[in-house]
Amino acid sequence: MSDIQVPSKMTGPVDELRTLTLMDFRRLGADTKQAVAHIVEKIELLGEESFGKRAEGTNAWRQSPLYKLYLEMGVESMERGEPIGIVISRRSTSNRPYLSEHEFTAVADLNQNLRF
Questions:
Q1: In the predicted model, what is the mean pLDDT of residues 28-52?
Q2: Cβ atoms of 65 and 20 closer than 8 Å
């Protein structure tokens, strides 16, 4: 009997951005800087096709689980009036997903650069 293999789904850059998870982000590069550069590259490639495609890529990014985690952590920090480092520590000890402080800052910078 042969091993069961799940067929891979072909997805485009917009779908890749829309479904990007924390685990995917951490696999995009050797460090956070490379991972962010990979996301920027995808959006820039879409922008070379058309302004509409760039907007579609940016909107897909904002629907991603990674972006939603970033927002969730930011809201938690603001609602509690705590620095992001405390939010990260609490999430870490309670086994909840979290971006490291460096990752959080990198995603914030990425979002700043994606504004039209």
A1: 94
A2: yes
